[in-house]
């Protein structure tokens, strides 16, 4: 593991803490002048730590990685009462020059030294991204083989995650983190916008001095209007969720009923499907040998699906042969017609935005929420039709076999999962995108399989259980709040269970009256409590009193939360990238 404790990541004051910026300026004026006269280079850690040592002697908390020289001025992020009570300090010799940076804040002058203290407002976040472009989200799903969704629901985890990811980068593991990853439902429950959480992420990137690309995901969006709103608020990735448009009820219909429904489809579309797929074998070769085609088409009467592969050897050829009957095509046309049209509409919104703003947006399509698993044979038809519709997507999330329930490990036949994953991967590679794995949190039995079969190229979303990490911190530092949240979660269960993939045995609810405060966190090791509390987040946070209590508790104990988040994230990453 690369995980290490956060003990030294925030420099605490070496004298009494101050309560406001003017008080600190008075105390620290000589220290500030001393720091300005240090011969600093932005990448000399010893010099920057010298500044940190001098400034913390004057009674503030300091994000040490944020200290840097920019256009002959000193920039740093400090905190007062708690670590989220942040200010950007800009220190220089010329107010006329410093005004040009564009930040808004309170000015102080001590002799020839000018100091501007800037709150992390929306305006200042915009100018932070202008002055420090690495603090702005950017595309990266296709540019980096391994991308990981890390956007936690409370927007408090990123600093801890980024300091960990910086260590992975130093050791040669390139990872593209998506730091913003909220659905519209999650945003509504906390009364925030994508603007708000992107701003929070930008400040965390600056605080940690993370100098690598990162993304912002408009997660599981279902309409063009939602997509447009996410784009205008700064998202660089759109996850288009077509799951609700997949009409799985047709699968149970009789042949006669299917035939009647099929005849109601556009006759040109029906003829196209039959001409393209009926009586034709579609052959995909992953890792083709010299001179071998990656895919070809053969006329055949064979209606079987055949896969030849060696799943333990990524260099071995994988050959997937797919063919379809008329009933297969009936099912596909009826089940996926609306879903494909939905994907097209959302993609058109993205394409128009890209053209209008001369920019590039990552686009992912997910069918993860489908009520039935997506077979590789169906995945191929979807990929082929998306190609025909000129839909450019960077990732696709199938609904895999087995159960990807929230907060617990994979349930299902791991060997079947691996066999089908080989085929899904072959299809994705051929069509030029990577597979996305949704609800990847805590799926430890699959992580090494995913890495081996996908050869390290995937987009895996692992942020769901960050809320459980937060709850464990709350159990430790505020037991009474945890007890209230536990009860509230069970009260909310019937209202939220229909929208989530969980199947807990409610009869196994832990009786907290029998658990002392010291062992309260162990409740989250029980599958039933873990899942019920996991999915109740949005319902709990709709009530302002609960949300404020949660945030106040975590903000007061952020170092512990970051430490636990690092350990939790590293537990996933070490399996994915193969560190120990």
What does this structure look like?
By secondary structure, this protein is an alpha/beta fold. 44% of the residues lie in helices and 16% in strands. It is built from 20 helices and 17 strands. It has helices spanning 21-36, 45-56, 95-99, 122-131, 158-170, 184-190, 194-208, 224-232, 255-263, 267-277, 326-357, 376-388, 414-431, 444-454, 466-477, 479-496, 527-535, 537-541, 544-556, 558-577, and strands at 61-70, 73-79, 86-92, 106-110, 113-118, 146-149, 176-182, 215-221, 237-241, 280-286, 295-299, 306-308, 318-322, 362-366, 395-397, 434-437, 458-461. An 8-stranded parallel barrel has the order 6-7-8-9-14-15-16-17, surrounded by 6 helices. A hairpin with an 8-residue loop joins β10 (280-286) and β11. α5 (158-170) crosses α7 (194-208) and α14 (444-454) packs across α20. The longest helix is centred in the middle third of the chain and has 32 residues, at 326-357. The protein is globular, with a radius of gyration of 26 Å. It starts with 20 loop residues before the first helix and ends with a helix. The model is unreliable at 36-47 and 288-315 (pLDDT under 50).
């Amino acid at each position: 593991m690369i995980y290490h404790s956060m003990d030294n990541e925030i420099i605490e004051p070496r004298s009494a803490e101050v309560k406001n910026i003017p008080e600190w300026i008075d105390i620290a004026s000589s220290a500030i002048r001393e720091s300005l006269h240090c011969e600093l280079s932005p990448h000399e850690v010893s010099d920057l730590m010298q500044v940190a040592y001098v400034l913390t002697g004057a009674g503030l908390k300091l994000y040490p990685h944020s200290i840097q020289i920019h256009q002959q001025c000193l920039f740093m992020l400090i905190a007062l009462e708690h670590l989220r009570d942040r200010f950007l300090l800009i220190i220089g010799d010329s107010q006329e020059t410093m005004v040009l940076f564009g930040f808004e804040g309170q000015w102080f002058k001590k002799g020839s030294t000018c100091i501007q203290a800037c709150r992390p407002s929306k305006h200042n976040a915009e100018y932070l991204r202008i002055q420090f472009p690495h603090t702005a989200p950017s595309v990266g799903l296709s540019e980096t083989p391994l991308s990981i969704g890390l956007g936690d629901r409370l927007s408090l985890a990123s600093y801890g995650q980024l300091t960990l990811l910086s260590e992975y980068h130093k050791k040669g593991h390139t990872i593209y983190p998506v730091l913003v990853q909220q659905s519209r439902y999650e945003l509504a429950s906390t009364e925030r916008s994508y603007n708000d959480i992107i701003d929070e992420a930008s400040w965390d990137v600056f605080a940690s001095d993370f100098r690598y690309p990162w993304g912002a995901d408009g997660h599981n969006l279902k309409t063009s209007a939602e997509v447009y709103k996410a784009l205008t608020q700064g998202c660089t990735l759109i996850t288009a969720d077509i799951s609700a448009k997949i009409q799985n009820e047709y699968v149970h219909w009789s042949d006669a009923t299917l035939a009647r429904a099929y005849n109601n489809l556009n006759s040109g579309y029906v003829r196209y499907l039959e001409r393209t797929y009926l009586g034709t074998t579609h052959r995909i070769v992953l890792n083709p040998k010299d001179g071998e085609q990656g895919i070809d088409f053969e006329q055949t009467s064979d209606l079987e699906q055949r896969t030849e592969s060696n799943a333990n050897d990524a260099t071995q050829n994988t050959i997937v042969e797919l063919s379809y009957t008329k009933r297969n095509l009936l099912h596909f046309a009826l089940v996926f017609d609306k879903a494909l049209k939905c994907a097209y509409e959302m993609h058109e919104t993205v394409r128009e935005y890209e053209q209008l703003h001369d920019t590039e947006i990552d686009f992912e399509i997910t069918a993860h929420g489908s009520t039935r698993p997506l077979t590789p044979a169906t995945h191929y038809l979807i990929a082929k039709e998306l190609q025909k519709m000129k839909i450019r997507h960077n990732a696709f999330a199938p609904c895999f076999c087995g159960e990807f329930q929230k907060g617990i490990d994979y349930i299902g036949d791991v060997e079947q999962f691996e066999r089908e994953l080989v085929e899904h991967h072959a299809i994705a590679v051929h069509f030029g995108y990577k597979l996305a794995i949704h609800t990847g949190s805590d799926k430890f039995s699959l992580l090494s399989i995913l890495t081996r079969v996908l050869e390290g190229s995937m987009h895996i979303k692992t942020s769901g259980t960050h809320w459980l990490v937060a709850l464990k911190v709350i159990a430790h530092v505020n037991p009474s709040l945890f007890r209230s949240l536990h009860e509230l979660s069970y009260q909310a269960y019937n209202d939220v269970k229909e929208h989530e993939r969980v199947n807990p045995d409610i009869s196994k609810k832990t009786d907290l009256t029998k658990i002392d405060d010291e062992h309260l966190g162990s409740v989250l090791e029980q599958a039933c409590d873990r899942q019920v509390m996991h999915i109740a987040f949005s319902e709990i946070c709709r009530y302002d009193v609960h949300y404020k209590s949660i945030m106040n508790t975590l903000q007061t104990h952020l170092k512990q939360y970051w430490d636990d988040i690092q350990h939790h994230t590293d537990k996933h990453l070490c399996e994915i990238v193969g560190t120990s």
